[in-house]
Amino acid sequence: MTKIPLTVRGAEKLREELNELKSIARPKVIQAIAEARAHGDLKENAEYHAAREQQGFVEARIKEIEGKLSHAQIIDVTKLNADGRVVFGCTIEVYEEESDEEHRFQIVGEDEADIKRGLISVSSPIARALIGKRAEEVAVVDTPKGSRHLEILQVRYE
After folding, report:
1. Beta strands 138-143; 146-156: pairing state
2. Number of domains, the chain
């Protein structure tokens, strides 16, 4: 399996979720199954079936997170020598000519992406157009609505 790029913050969030699933969610589900078993006949026990289904979801998510963390390439952007270029993990401020707006993006792994918070996936068209460029350069992003021209105002490694 190929390495999955993650920021330090993204890896921390996955570890926190994994810890919560193992220490809180899993014991709750086990307790719910035990309580449902105590009610008797399991064939027609909706509580038991719901708890078993929830257990399946929790265990699948634990396995998924453990797999991602085991294949993660954690990149600390503060320790990179990117020479002013846009790279994975950096924060970019851009000016979009067409809409006359400024935007701030951080390029993150696919699991961390959240466009509402300005976190864009490294595989997104915007990130692919920005990577390798420097401040004052213009990146052209082809979208279904046409080309977007993003002038890079600042690149930060935080």
Report:
1. antiparallel
2. 2
Task: Return the ∠ at Cα 44 (arms to 38 and 48), rounded to 5°.
Answer: 45
Q: Are residues 111 and 122 in contact, defined by beta-carbon separation less than 8 angstroms?
A: no
From the CA atom positions of the chain, what is the Rg in Å? Answer: 22
pLDDT per residue over 8-52, tens digit each?
999 999 999 999 999 999 999 999 988 888 877 767 778 888 889
Do 106 and 49 share a structural domain?
no
pTM to 2 decimal places: 0.80
* 47-80 confidence digits (pLDDT tens): 888 889 999 999 999 999 999 999 999 999 888 8
CATH number at residue 15: 1.10.287.180
DSSP element (H, E) containing 28: helix 26-37
118 sits in the region (left: phi over 0; alpha: psi -120 to 50; else beta) called: left
Domain that holds residue 137: 78-156
Contacts for 65 with CB less than 8 Å, ≥ 6 apart: 14, 17, 18, 21
